[in-house]
Design goal:
Helix content is 59%, strand content 15%. By secondary structure, it is an alpha+beta fold. Strands 1, 2, 3, 4, 5, 6, 7, 8, 9 and 10 form a ten-stranded antiparallel sheet that branches. Strand 4 and strand 5 form a beta hairpin.
């Protein structure tokens, strides 16, 4: 059963990786026989991103199941402890039973010895009585005694021998009864011992089964989670290649006359720890300006081609991944996400074409979190970027000019 599960896990892992490679091969043209376009690369990004998000969802489900399994394991541990306690109790009873059997067997040996002694005493007394009566006819008794007192004493002697026989017979019967009772007790104790040993063995088998179940429950789910995480890492590696190819095409496009691209990573990090959130060709709208959609622009707009990677501007946790839609139409920010960085800062990224992270994920500075798009109130592909600052430890935020906090 365990080997079958291992083979299944290997098959699913291989199938997932093959699917990713097929996507990569078909869309990226690995043989380089044809030149790829930004549009094709964007499609590949979408496919890879979907694969990552699907697997991340499955990983979260697996983690939830592992948490649930942990409670099952806790329950199994309690059962195992209870079973081990029962085994310990039974072991004491088994040992006590063995001691009682040993004592009973010793009693039987002792009673047999007593019986042999009493039988010997009875035989000796019978010989004495036989000898006494052999020579005790009335005439001989009278002739053989010189006084009446001797005659009476002789009769008392014979009577004492007869009483001794009676007492011996009674003792023999008593010993025989005790012997039979001991033998009966011995059989009962032996049967009881067999029952206790069977019960003890059953508990031990139960403990082994429970331990095996406990180990397999977690092992199987951990293996599944690890397989999914491997697939995510494979997809992310492919994404990096796609990003590099897009950057190369963008650089070529810039050199051909569309304007020099400003690369986010080349700008470094600001004093408060922020980097630029995307490579851009120009800033299409600044903080505080009037735009077709706002009388006071609440962030900055970084323009570039659709599909341009968006980076986490600093370490933090993704608090929101959402889409502003009504009746199937985007409005406002369109696809957007928010990252909480610390008790002071949060950042918002709007008009994305797709996401690369999920709500609740922890991200690091420079990590790809989505891709530039044209969703929501937008006149062309760009990133709408906002920085929020709190003065009360994260309870309330106010939008501030991002330029003042970027390098």
């Amino acid at each position: 059963m365990n080997n079958l599960f291992t083979k299944q896990q290997a098959f699913y892992k291989k199938a997932g990786l093959i699917a990713l490679i097929l996507i990569f091969s078909l869309l990226f043209n690995i043989d380089n026989s044809q030149a790829v376009t930004v549009s094709e690369l964007q499609k590949q990004q979408t496919e890879l991103n979907k694969q990552i998000q699907d697997n991340r969802t499955k990983v979260k489900e697996a983690k939830a199941e592992i948490t649930d399994i942990s409670s099952q394991i806790t329950e199994l541990d309690s059962y195992i402890s209870l079973s081990e306690s029962k085994i310990s109790e039974l072991a004491i009873k088994v040992e006590d039973n063995k001691n009682q059997i040993k004592q009973t067997e010793e009693n039987i040996v002792s009673k047999k010895r007593d019986l042999d002694n009493e039988m010997g005493n009875q035989a000796e007394t019978l010989r004495t009585i036989y000898e006494a009566y052999k020579y005790s006819n009335p005439i001989r008794m009278i002739i053989g005694t010189s006084t009446l007192s001797q005659l009476i004493n002789y009769n008392a002697y014979l009577e004492a021998l007869e009483n001794k026989i009676d007492a011996t017979i009674a003792e023999i019967n008593k010993i025989k009864t005790e012997l039979e009772n001991n033998k009966k007790t011995l059989e009962e104790k032996k049967k009881e011992l067999e029952g206790l040993q069977e019960q003890e063995a059953a508990y031990k088998r139960g403990v082994e089964d429970q331990r095996y179940t406990k180990d397999k429950l977690l092992e199987n789910k951990e293996s599944e989670k690890a397989s999914l995480e491997d697939q995510i890492e494979e997809a992310k590696a492919m994404q990096a290649e796609v990003e590099a190819k897009i950057s190369s095409l963008m650089a070529a496009s810039s050199k051909s006359g569309s304007g020099q691209t400003v690369y986010a990573r080349d700008r470094g990090t600001s004093a408060v720890g922020f980097m630029w959130p995307a490579d851009y060709q120009y800033i299409s709208a600044y903080y505080g300006e009037v735009t077709p959609f706002q009388s006071f622009h609440s962030g900055i707009d970084l323009a570039n081609i659709s599909g341009t990677p968006i980076y986490a501007t600093a370490d933090g946790d993704v608090s929101t991944v959402a889409s502003m839609q009504t009746d199937g139409h985007y409005y406002g920010y369109g696809n957007y996400l928010i990252i909480g960085h610390n008790a002071r800062f949060a950042s918002l990224y709007g008009h994305l074409t797709s996401f690369a992270v999920s709500q609740g994920d922890h991200v690091t500075k420079g990590q790809i979190i989505g891709y530039m798009g044209n969703t929501g109130w937008s006149t062309g592909p760009h990133l709408h970027f906002e920085i929020w600052e709190s003065s009360d430890g994260g309870n309330n935020y106010a939008r501030v000019n991002p330029i003042s906090y970027l390098p």
